[in-house]
């Protein structure tokens, strides 16, 4: 309920006394009234900044966090205040909403951060007041567009995003859309570009008058008629290539209907149809006139260049988005033309041998004058005609100049957006590389830790203490966790270089089905199947002979979940970066060897588990199921088993 | 062509100027503030405690920073309580959240008439604006007053021209205004002569000497005889 209504409700109810004498039926009893304690002041502490307000103010909006009992979760009994660990600057706006009933949008804050605060406090973004609504929507739209562009760029990017099992169709389509992915695609791209140019040049040259070798001074023939065979062959070749390209694209398109309706395919069709129609139509005089006109359409081949040129595409897009301005320009021009043509016609009507024979004839004069061309083929001779002619040319300048800045600014905006998108895509690669470097840094830390012998169970106490002192408790426990994982799966963490080398050396086992759930990157540390745990292999072979498929699958799910954490929409925290090393690992185990039936931890971590395993906070929830091995009835390798829910 | 456009633009500026003046005038008006009398005085004059007065004033001041309510604002506020009696939402009024259903086109509904009568009843000094004192005084009567005071206030409400008598036309207006607040969609369907019937019933009950006019004494007497009315008067004790 809005602030205003809460205040005025008692008055409205009191005014109902006025209906009493008129009431023909007894009025309903009043609702029960809670003991109103009178208004009290609440203290809301947001990251140290204290806000105080009446309880009534917050109660105005009972379906938000502060207005409902949800705020009791944040009540600190010791200090008697409600503590929120959020941005105090943003909270100011939230509290003002309760006070004034209008939600204002801060101009200097990131719109995403503002949205998150709103979501936290239970406010719907629609509550943003009218004064700030436009700007809020614009900024949000801009942000969304930019993010969508990024996502799109990632998807259609030239990363190795194709799954291994993609069909010919998908590969072909990708080659068409991103020519720089493979050399064949690039070659195809340039070849088609070359042939478009050849075709256009041929069309142009066809009409140039050639000086014939035999001095036939009677008539100069255009080249097209002197060498009909040559030009026909060239035309045929081009059309064949274009047809082939079109059919290939049609075949490869993921959605054929959409492809058929797209602008580029229409241009392709228009470019090649005249040739086929020309072939089918017999060469008689009646139809050859129409046939000649059809050849005009061959010039549309030049539009095929828009696939090759981004600037052209931007221009086309700009014109489309400025359709309303262009329409206005056209409309106002038409109006002006008609007015001035009429005026000129009647002004020049009196003179003999005038060019202004009719109003439509005067249209030509008006257009030529308004666009300041002034061919001079039609000139007014009366004084009135000259006066109106000059007014016409002056206003022509104005009318044309008006919509042009709008179109130009649109073009500039779209062009810059595109530039930004390209720049961002280029920077994205650098960003990703840097992130990968940072991530490999953590794996390296772990590898370093291992090398220092920090995980040696049997290491001497002092040595261990020395190594360990340099790392925080968090790091220790994290490394311990990674180590446990290694022991469990009998695979080891390694760095990219070693991995890719090993990958080249060994062929992958046929366990792709299991690897799909982990990550899309080509994994499968085949080389890591190397006998890292030969002794254990034997022992486990016995166990695994009895292991049920469900248990193994369960463990797969466990580890998959751990690995899958990195993909959840967790905030960009260290945990998500740290999660990466997990999924570089692939459970590409042969069933003979290394399936984990238990995830066991020799010594339970001393500190609170949630602090040490931040990677568990990412979406997906905790890996809460326990792994049982007791049903297998085989001797356990490790003395203790701990529920993995501690993670 | 340019001359034509020039004349157009000059015409437009002439039209725009008066409205700009009006906006400036309105701005000036809202600058005028009214401060109520002291808290002690109000406490003495009304039946509210200091705390209650504080709460009331805080709400009032929040809604009307200038300290007075004019009739349009009053109508707008009152209309928000009646979904089918909603006026078209003006800028800034948060009525959208409150209305459970989309408001009907305003040709079908009208809460403004009754709000107008209410406003006149509140505005005892007939100044055209309701100050906080008026507001609180009326509330005090309605919520904490004696039966006698409440009935007198109601009589005052019904007496549109404030001549001390209620005649059938005034009652018709009031009843029609109340039925208008119900809107078009009622069950059972509102018939044309329902208000008239209602008024006839009322006059039959209230008009003792059948002279077509209800005086204050007749009104008080008849109401006090009616048990329903007496009981209902107790309903609004705990509104604050």
From TrEMBL, chain A:
Protein topology in the membrane: Multi-pass membrane protein
Origin species: Aotus nancymaae
Similarity field: Belongs to the potassium channel family. D (Shal) (TC 1.A.1.2) subfamily. Kv4.1/KCND1 sub-subfamily.
Name assigned to this protein: A-type voltage-gated potassium channel KCND1
The keyword Transmembrane appears for this protein: yes
Bias (Low complexity): 510-520
Chain intervals for the UniProt region annotation (Disordered): 144-164, 510-532, 601-632
Keywords: Ion channel, Ion transport, Membrane, Potassium, Potassium channel, Potassium transport, Transmembrane, Transmembrane helix, Transport, Voltage-gated channel
Parts of the chain that traverse the membrane: 187-205, 259-281, 326-347, 359-375, 387-408
Polar residues biased stretches: 521-530
Annotated compartments: Membrane
One annotated Gene Ontology cellular component of this protein: neuronal cell body
Subunit structure: Component of heteromultimeric potassium channels. Identified in potassium channel complexes containing KCND1, KCND2, KCND3, KCNIP1, KCNIP2, KCNIP3, KCNIP4, DPP6 and DPP10.
Gene Ontology terms: biological process: action potential; protein homooligomerization
Top-rank lineage group of the source organism: Eukaryota
All copies of domain BTB, residue ranges: 40-139
Name of one Pfam family that matches: Ion_trans
Principal cellular location given in the protein's record: membrane
TrEMBL record, chain B:
Entry-linked InterPro entries: EF-hand-dom_pair, EF_Hand_1_Ca_BS, EF_hand_dom, Recoverin
Region (Disordered): 1-21
Single annotated GO MF: transmembrane transporter binding
Gene3D superfamilies: EF-hand
Keyword Kinase: no
PROSITE patterns named in the record: EF_HAND_1, EF_HAND_2
Pfam families on file: EF-hand_7, EF-hand_8
GO cellular component: voltage-gated potassium channel complex
Sequence ranges assigned to domain EF-hand in this UniProt record: 110-145, 146-181, 194-229
Annotated keywords: Calcium, Metal-binding, Repeat
Keyword Calcium listed: yes
Gene Ontology BP annotations: regulation of potassium ion transmembrane transport
PANTHER family: CALCIUM BINDING PROTEINS, KV CHANNEL-INTERACTING PROTEIN 1
Protein name listed in UniProt: Potassium voltage-gated channel interacting protein 1
